[in-house]
Predict the structure of L-gulonate 3-dehydrogenase.
Amino acid sequence: MSSSPETRVTLIGAGTIGISLAALHLTHLHSPESLTIVDTRPDLAVVVKDQLNKIIPKQLGPQISKINLTTNLTHAVKEATIVQESGPEDLYFKQSLWAEVEKHAPRNALFWTSTTGIPASLQNRSMQDKSRLIVVHPFNPPHILPLLEIVPAPETSQSVIDATLAFWRNRGRQPILIRKEVKGFVAGRLAWALLREAVHLVNEDVVTVEELDRIMENSMGPRWAYAGPFKSFHTGGGPGGLEALMKNVGGSVQACWDDAGRVNIGEDWEQKIFYQTREAYKEVDLDERDRAMRRIFDAVAEEKSRSS
């Protein structure tokens, strides 16, 4: 599917992910009138204008006023070729939503859910045609980070999978097909596993929140921006690769795995960790985050182009 006048995208939800997806779609659609955002919030127009102006290129600013905004779901999806949902992470909400969307959207429209962890096979339970729904999970913020985890339900049709992958590849993104439904998908499981160990180490007073972040920023962070854990550790093993590395340090690796921290949401660590994080970083600065990530991607792309 290409960026043509016939591509009409409806985004359900104007939260952080929804706005970021709007910025992404806006840079590729033939016309801003082909983008519709539906949300029940009364300040929708103000939120969309204020938030999009912060993250899109200045030359696209005038297009914001041409985006279709509505609180009416039926109206929002009736001519859509793509319906992408980024609503509350609530199973009942999503089941009810997709059943309603299916009633009013065109028969050939693609249905994408940007859920963090609720599989399509649970969301599609109230749909007449369960083959239409697929998870398209972006990594925040999707207008910068190119990853999209494409997670079909067992019922999802191959045509929906193929069309979804093609759509994002044509936009220069990195859609990865996740072959089995699994809680949290892949990127989330990796991120939350690292956060769990980070919480454990801070809670045990091994390091502070700020010190742990500096460890990441000056070691794995830049290394993983260039290569994932398998490639990183493969190079770390020298000529023998990952196998040689494990032969050399496997005992220490196993000891760390055996000693991994176990923490749970809602336990006493939260007050300590939340306090240290607020003290270290004060106000959240999304502009700094976005600038830094863009520069990292530019540097990695430049370096990889030299060796290609």
